[in-house]
Specification:
This protein is about 20% helix and about 45% strand. It has three helices and eight strands; from the N terminus they run βββββαβββαα. It starts with a strand and ends in a 13-residue tail after the last helix. By secondary structure, it is of the alpha+beta class. Strands 1, 2, 5, 6, 7 and 8 form a six-stranded mixed β-sheet that branches. The protein has one domain: Nucleoside Triphosphate Pyrophosphohydrolase, CATH 3.90.79. The longest helix is centred in the C-terminal third of the chain and has 16 residues.
């Protein structure tokens, strides 16, 4: 079985309205959900995820997390703490259709600078949109269970480390 090592981030920023978290809407073919009442009515399912990607050769997971966040959201952030590793198996839907064992190291990062969704044209192949969500309730909006769990870990970390809120609040961008 093929193995992949990735890293990603739960990027938070403190605003006057509380904590926000950076999420992406991956660029992919539309997920179509048929409603039970009328089979002809269809709607597109919104997919929201955390920024993440493969660790490049010679790169540390922490560096990959920071790089992937910048590439996929347009913002720069610094690592606060490692949250966890999530592990899962998936089948590639492109090319070779192989089963892949994947490990993703997730880090809590704090927003430093940049404009959300200021993403390169090349990255638009992967990311349809990047946005801020209120951290409270964000876990319910993410599409993948492992990432929902990671956001809950970030919330617990912020609750138990009030010094994280000591940095000045950012005005809304």
């Amino acid at each position: 079985m093929v193995r992949e090592i990735s890293a990603g981030g739960v990027v938070v920023r403190k605003t006057d309205n509380g904590w926000s978290v950076a999420v992406i809407e991956p660029q992919r073919e539309a997920f179509v959900v048929t409603t039970s009442r009328k089979k002809s009515r269809q709607k597109e399912k919104l997919v929201l995820a955390l920024p993440k990607g493969l660790v490049d050769p010679g790169e540390e997971p922490e560096q990959a997390a920071i790089r992937e966040v910048q590439e996929e959201t347009g913002i720069t952030a610094t690592i606060v703490a490692k949250l966890t590793d999530i592990k899962y198996v998936y089948v590639r839907t492109w090319g070779d259709q192989q089963r892949v064992f994947k490990i993703v190291s997730f880090y809590l990062l704090r927003y430093e600078s940049g404009r959300m969704d200021d993403v390169s044209t090349e990255m638009r192949v992967e990311v349809k949109r990047a946005q801020w969500l209120a951290l409270e309730g964000a876990a319910r909006k993410l599409s993948y269970k492992g990432e929902r769990d990671v956001v809950r870990l970030a919330e617990k970390y912020l609750e138990s480390h009030p010094e994280c809120a000591a940095a000045p609040a950012v005005s809304k961008l």
